[in-house]
Write a structure and sequence with these properties.
By secondary structure, this protein is mostly helical. The protein is built from 3 helices and no strands. It starts with a helix and ends in a 6-residue tail after the last helix. This is Tripartite tricarboxylate transporter family receptor.
Amino acid sequence: MQRLNQMYSEALQDADVRQILAQQGMVAAASSPEAFSAFMKAESAKYGQAVKDGNVRID
């Protein structure tokens, strides 16, 4: 997770990346590896539950 956080932080230093994210209505900010890990776990749980609730399947 630390390496993924580092890559994410590096990408956010690129003005083109920030512009593309802004065009999509996203506001991205760098964070600590611990905060990034907590965010990813929460997002995984949230969307995992949506997949279960929606009975989404990969064909």
